[in-house]
Write the C-alpha coordinates for this entry.
Amino acid sequence: MSEEPVREEPEELPEYKIEGARSSRSSCKTCKRKIQKDTLRLGVRIEGPFGVGFLWHHLTCAAKRHAQHVEGAYELRAWAEGVEVPPLEELRKLKEKAEEQKKKRKDPPYAERAPSGRSKCKLCGELIEKGALRVALPIVVEFYGQTRQGSILVHTACVQAALHTDDSAVEDPAGLPQELEANSRDLPPEDLARALDEIGAL
Ligand SMILES: [Zn+2]
Ligand SMILES: [Zn+2]
Protein backbone atom coordinates (compact mmCIF):
# COMPACT_ATOMS: atom_id res chain seq x y z
CA MET A 1 0.00 0.00 0.00
CA SER A 2 0.92 3.62 -0.15
CA GLU A 3 3.63 4.55 2.35
CA GLU A 4 2.10 7.92 2.76
CA PRO A 5 -1.21 8.42 4.49
CA VAL A 6 -3.85 9.51 2.07
CA ARG A 7 -5.80 12.39 3.42
CA GLU A 8 -8.75 12.37 1.06
CA GLU A 9 -11.87 10.36 1.81
CA PRO A 10 -11.61 7.01 0.02
CA GLU A 11 -14.60 7.59 -2.23
CA GLU A 12 -13.04 10.83 -3.37
CA LEU A 13 -9.81 9.23 -4.52
CA PRO A 14 -9.55 9.52 -8.27
CA GLU A 15 -8.27 6.69 -10.41
CA TYR A 16 -5.02 8.52 -11.09
CA LYS A 17 -3.14 11.44 -9.68
CA ILE A 18 -0.08 13.25 -10.93
CA GLU A 19 1.63 15.57 -8.48
CA GLY A 20 4.97 16.71 -7.15
CA ALA A 21 5.80 14.33 -4.29
CA ARG A 22 4.80 15.98 -1.00
CA SER A 23 7.70 14.36 0.86
CA SER A 24 10.59 12.04 0.08
CA ARG A 25 8.96 9.10 1.85
CA SER A 26 7.17 7.31 -0.96
CA SER A 27 8.98 4.94 -3.25
CA CYS A 28 8.46 4.13 -6.87
CA LYS A 29 6.77 0.80 -7.52
CA THR A 30 8.58 0.55 -10.84
CA CYS A 31 12.23 1.24 -9.96
CA LYS A 32 11.86 0.64 -6.18
CA ARG A 33 13.75 3.82 -5.38
CA LYS A 34 12.67 6.74 -3.24
CA ILE A 35 10.69 9.46 -4.92
CA GLN A 36 12.33 12.72 -3.90
CA LYS A 37 10.14 15.56 -2.67
CA ASP A 38 8.69 17.65 -5.52
CA THR A 39 9.57 15.06 -8.18
CA LEU A 40 6.56 14.36 -10.39
CA ARG A 41 4.90 11.10 -9.44
CA LEU A 42 1.92 9.19 -10.75
CA GLY A 43 -0.47 7.63 -8.28
CA VAL A 44 -2.50 4.65 -9.43
CA ARG A 45 -5.50 3.99 -7.20
CA ILE A 46 -5.56 0.61 -5.60
CA GLU A 47 -8.28 -0.94 -3.50
CA GLY A 48 -6.91 -3.50 -1.12
CA PRO A 49 -7.96 -5.20 2.08
CA PHE A 50 -6.72 -2.19 4.07
CA GLY A 51 -8.58 0.42 2.12
CA VAL A 52 -8.02 2.62 -0.85
CA GLY A 53 -4.77 4.34 -1.65
CA PHE A 54 -2.29 5.18 -4.35
CA LEU A 55 0.64 3.16 -5.55
CA TRP A 56 3.22 5.69 -6.64
CA HIS A 57 5.60 5.68 -9.55
CA HIS A 58 8.02 8.29 -10.83
CA LEU A 59 6.12 9.76 -13.76
CA THR A 60 9.06 9.00 -16.04
CA CYS A 61 9.30 5.40 -14.79
CA ALA A 62 5.59 4.92 -15.39
CA ALA A 63 5.99 6.36 -18.88
CA LYS A 64 8.54 3.69 -19.72
CA ARG A 65 6.90 0.72 -18.08
CA HIS A 66 3.21 1.43 -17.52
CA ALA A 67 2.27 3.57 -20.48
CA GLN A 68 -1.42 2.65 -20.21
CA HIS A 69 -1.64 4.33 -16.80
CA VAL A 70 0.09 7.45 -18.07
CA GLU A 71 -2.26 7.62 -21.04
CA GLY A 72 -5.20 7.16 -18.69
CA ALA A 73 -3.99 9.87 -16.32
CA TYR A 74 -3.52 12.34 -19.16
CA GLU A 75 -6.93 11.53 -20.55
CA LEU A 76 -8.43 12.43 -17.17
CA ARG A 77 -6.06 15.38 -16.71
CA ALA A 78 -5.29 13.88 -13.33
CA TRP A 79 -3.34 16.78 -11.88
CA ALA A 80 -4.26 19.91 -9.97
CA GLU A 81 -4.15 23.31 -11.52
CA GLY A 82 -0.66 24.75 -11.39
CA VAL A 83 1.08 21.36 -11.64
CA GLU A 84 3.37 21.48 -14.64
CA VAL A 85 3.40 18.17 -16.45
CA PRO A 86 5.48 17.31 -19.52
CA PRO A 87 3.65 16.97 -22.85
CA LEU A 88 2.30 13.45 -23.32
CA GLU A 89 4.24 13.24 -26.57
CA GLU A 90 7.50 13.52 -24.63
CA LEU A 91 6.52 10.70 -22.32
CA ARG A 92 5.62 8.52 -25.29
CA LYS A 93 9.07 9.20 -26.72
CA LEU A 94 10.64 8.15 -23.41
CA LYS A 95 8.91 4.83 -23.75
CA GLU A 96 10.07 4.32 -27.33
CA LYS A 97 13.61 5.21 -26.37
CA ALA A 98 13.56 2.89 -23.37
CA GLU A 99 12.37 0.05 -25.58
CA GLU A 100 15.06 0.69 -28.16
CA GLN A 101 17.75 0.80 -25.51
CA LYS A 102 16.47 -2.37 -23.96
CA LYS A 103 16.86 -4.17 -27.26
CA LYS A 104 20.41 -2.92 -27.67
CA ARG A 105 21.52 -3.06 -24.09
CA LYS A 106 24.07 -5.45 -22.82
CA ASP A 107 24.43 -5.60 -19.08
CA PRO A 108 27.81 -4.64 -17.72
CA PRO A 109 30.29 -6.01 -16.96
CA TYR A 110 31.19 -7.35 -20.38
CA ALA A 111 34.23 -7.35 -22.63
CA GLU A 112 34.27 -6.62 -26.35
CA ARG A 113 36.47 -5.37 -29.14
CA ALA A 114 36.08 -1.64 -29.73
CA PRO A 115 34.04 -1.30 -32.94
CA SER A 116 35.65 2.10 -33.67
CA GLY A 117 38.55 4.18 -32.42
CA ARG A 118 36.29 6.86 -31.04
CA SER A 119 35.57 5.67 -27.52
CA LYS A 120 37.62 7.02 -24.64
CA CYS A 121 38.70 5.10 -21.59
CA LYS A 122 36.82 6.57 -18.66
CA LEU A 123 39.75 5.94 -16.37
CA CYS A 124 42.85 7.21 -18.18
CA GLY A 125 41.05 9.46 -20.65
CA GLU A 126 42.93 8.04 -23.64
CA LEU A 127 41.19 6.84 -26.79
CA ILE A 128 40.57 3.12 -27.08
CA GLU A 129 42.08 1.88 -30.32
CA LYS A 130 39.77 0.30 -32.86
CA GLY A 131 39.73 -3.47 -32.38
CA ALA A 132 41.31 -3.27 -28.95
CA LEU A 133 39.73 -5.23 -26.14
CA ARG A 134 37.76 -3.01 -23.80
CA VAL A 135 35.60 -3.65 -20.79
CA ALA A 136 32.26 -2.12 -19.79
CA LEU A 137 31.99 -1.85 -16.03
CA PRO A 138 28.90 -1.00 -13.99
CA ILE A 139 28.99 2.21 -11.98
CA VAL A 140 26.59 4.08 -9.76
CA VAL A 141 25.46 7.42 -11.18
CA GLU A 142 23.40 10.23 -9.73
CA PHE A 143 20.80 11.54 -12.11
CA TYR A 144 18.56 14.36 -10.97
CA GLY A 145 18.76 13.18 -7.39
CA GLN A 146 18.11 9.54 -8.24
CA THR A 147 20.86 6.97 -8.17
CA ARG A 148 20.92 4.38 -10.85
CA GLN A 149 23.32 2.07 -12.54
CA GLY A 150 25.32 3.19 -15.51
CA SER A 151 28.37 1.82 -17.21
CA ILE A 152 31.80 3.01 -18.27
CA LEU A 153 34.19 1.73 -20.92
CA VAL A 154 37.80 1.20 -19.97
CA HIS A 155 40.97 -0.34 -21.38
CA THR A 156 41.52 -3.86 -20.11
CA ALA A 157 44.71 -2.56 -18.47
CA CYS A 158 42.68 0.12 -16.66
CA VAL A 159 40.10 -2.28 -15.18
CA GLN A 160 41.96 -2.83 -11.89
CA ALA A 161 42.19 0.88 -11.14
CA ALA A 162 38.59 1.45 -12.24
CA LEU A 163 37.39 -1.13 -9.73
CA HIS A 164 38.87 0.97 -6.95
CA THR A 165 37.04 4.18 -7.78
CA ASP A 166 34.19 5.37 -5.56
CA ASP A 167 31.50 4.96 -8.18
CA SER A 168 32.39 1.39 -9.08
CA ALA A 169 29.36 -0.88 -8.76
CA VAL A 170 31.37 -4.11 -8.89
CA GLU A 171 30.87 -5.48 -5.42
CA ASP A 172 33.07 -8.52 -5.77
CA PRO A 173 36.11 -7.93 -8.02
CA ALA A 174 37.16 -11.55 -7.61
CA GLY A 175 33.93 -12.58 -9.31
CA LEU A 176 34.51 -10.32 -12.30
CA PRO A 177 36.03 -12.99 -14.60
CA GLN A 178 32.95 -15.20 -14.21
CA GLU A 179 30.65 -12.26 -14.87
CA LEU A 180 32.61 -11.25 -17.95
CA GLU A 181 32.44 -14.79 -19.20
CA ALA A 182 28.66 -14.91 -18.70
CA ASN A 183 28.01 -11.51 -20.31
CA SER A 184 30.49 -11.38 -23.18
CA ARG A 185 28.74 -13.88 -25.41
CA ASP A 186 29.70 -12.11 -28.64
CA LEU A 187 33.37 -12.39 -27.83
CA PRO A 188 35.32 -15.49 -29.00
CA PRO A 189 36.72 -17.51 -26.06
CA GLU A 190 40.33 -16.78 -27.01
CA ASP A 191 39.61 -13.05 -26.96
CA LEU A 192 37.97 -13.37 -23.58
CA ALA A 193 41.00 -15.28 -22.25
CA ARG A 194 43.21 -12.53 -23.60
CA ALA A 195 41.07 -9.82 -22.02
CA LEU A 196 41.27 -11.57 -18.65
CA ASP A 197 45.01 -11.86 -19.08
CA GLU A 198 45.31 -8.14 -19.81
CA ILE A 199 43.16 -7.32 -16.80
CA GLY A 200 45.45 -9.37 -14.58
CA ALA A 201 44.84 -11.13 -11.30
CA LEU A 202 41.96 -9.67 -9.29
ZN1 LIG B 1 10.96 5.07 -10.49
ZN1 LIG C 1 42.61 3.46 -19.97
